[in-house]
């Protein structure tokens, strides 16, 4: 579920290869191997964002350094504004 949420949030207003890069960096951060990523729930994603130091720090962890397209908010802002505070 976590990968699906990141995909949906980061897909808005960017080229999809950028989303793939973010997903790969998140998987690397989790310690994923060639055998796959550990299953992560929406709650796990919220915990991961908190353990990274919040939405902006999480965006930095997954190296989301691309410029947003004109008229779109930054991905880290979109992430922080759209994730539920609790599940």
Architecture overview:
With 87 residues, the protein is mainly α. The chain has one domain (2-82). The chain is built from five helices and no strands. Helix 1 (2-10) runs antiparallel to helix 2 (16-30), helix 3 packs across helix 4 (55-61) and helix 4 (55-61) crosses helix 5. 17% of the residues are buried. The model is unreliable at 67-77 (pLDDT under 50).
Unreliable residue runs: 67-77
Q: What number is the mean pLDDT?
A: 76
Form type: globular
Radius of gyration, in Å, reads 12 Å
Class inferred from helices and paired strands: mainly alpha
Distance between the termini: 13 Å
Helix content: 55-70%
Task: Output the keywords.
87 residues; mainly alpha; globular
